[in-house]
Amino acid sequence: MAVIHETTMVPTKVELLASWLPTRSWYRGSARPVLQRTGGFRLDDPAGEVGIEFMVVTDTSGEDPVTYQVPFAYRGVPRDGVEDTLIGTSMHGVLGQRWLYDGTRDPVVVAQILALLSGTVQPQAQHASATVDESVAVTTPDIAVPTLESEPVVAEDGSSRTDIMVGAQVPGSTAIVRVNRVLQPGEESSDRAGAGHVTASWQLPDGASVRGVFLSFDGHMES
User: Fold this and answer.
1) Straight-line distance from the first to the last Cα atom of the chain, in angstroms, rounded to the nearest whole number
2) Which residues pair with 102 in a beta bridge?
3) φ, ψ for residue 39 (rounded to 5)?
4) pLDDT value at position 31?
5) Which residues contact 197 (CB under 8 A, 6 or more apart)?
6) Global pTM?
7) Are 31 and 22 in contact (CB under 8 A)?
């Protein structure tokens, strides 16, 4: 189980995101986001080397607030050849320098997302060590969820989500993990019967709690 340290990070994750988010195709705000943390959860790396956090931030810089999901991979050393997936670096008060990557392109994060969707790992609380987050609901799909068999991770950003390709299931189709970057309240999942998805909660600017789909998988989404 990952240990959550009560310490500082300089710059903070929110500060790093304020610079990184406007460079994304799915970002809908101004060039200067006004962000606050509004939710999220964690997963454990079985090897204990990579921190995995699904961070939710709400941007209030525009006319209407927009809530984003960013899966983070925290690493103690930089990854070679994937500089374009780096969100930034930060000095951790206990662990020293950390390299923070977009988790949708990190093989350890993607492998644990697949394990979460298959029901073989449990979501962990964002701010407490060794604590299962019971508020995160996982619906496993009717078909087997594949494992990640090759690197680099292949992912494509859209206007509101990132699709991670994890293997062909039938000719002409690709198994896709869909990461909703722009979060919308509602318990909707894929419109295909038997699809798997992960739902969790976050807070609106007025303090109200809502739920929505963070991740989904059904194995037959068109690529």
Assistant:
1) 35
2) 72
3) 165, -175
4) 82
5) 117, 138, 139, 189, 190, 213, 215, 216, 217
6) 0.90
7) yes
Q: Token digits for 77?
A: 């050393």
The whole-number pLDDT of residue 223 equals 41
Q: Report the pLDDT value the prediction gives residue 135, as an integer from 0 to 100.
A: 95
pLDDT over 50 at 47, yes or no:
yes
Cα separation, 61 vs 65, whole angstroms: 7
Give the whole-angstrom CA distance, residue 83 versus residue 105.
11
Where do we find the tokens 């951790």? 92
**Nearest residue to 196 (alpha-carbon basis) of 104, 109, 105, 120:** 120
Sign for the CA dihedral angle at 55, 70, 57, 120 comes to: negative
What does the chain come to in residues? Answer: 223
Helix runs in 41-171, H state only: 107-118
Q: Extract the tokens encoding 174.
A: 């690709």
Task: Note whether 68 and 21 are within 8 A (CB).
Answer: yes
Asked if the bond preceding 78 is cis, omega within 30° of 0, the reply is no
The answer to whether 100 and 86 are in contact (CB under 8 A) is yes
Question: For residues 216 and 26, what is the distance between their CA atoms, to the nearest angstrom?
Answer: 17
CA distances from 53 to 12, 75, 128, 192 (A): 14, 12, 12, 28
Work out the percent of the chain whose per-residue pLDDT is above 90: 70
**Residues 56 and 39: beta-carbon distance below 8 Å:** yes
**What integer is the mean pLDDT of 33-38?**
96
